[in-house]
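comment on this one:
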Amino acid sequence: MPGRSADQAPIPIADVVDALTTLRPSLIHTARRQLQVHGLDCQLAEDLVQDAIARWFTRRPEYRGPGQLYTWLRTTMARMAADLLRSRRDALDWDWISLDERVWAA
């Protein structure tokens, strides 16, 4: 999605806030499901939603209504959940190597 150019009208912030307020329960539910699928802690769902919303405001894609916003946020949350899983797997692999090295060194 292209970013906003200087000649575009400003994002109607009241519309975005209304959409986010309406979409938040669905986003949290979706985030919980995504985290469960990956075997991650479902308590991270609200953090995942907040991070996705913050990323949306940082990137500022063109606002085309609540449907497009929900799709963008859902896709972003799925990618963030996968990144979280990947980082945890890397940490687990590293811990396994560290433990193995300690056993052999003793």
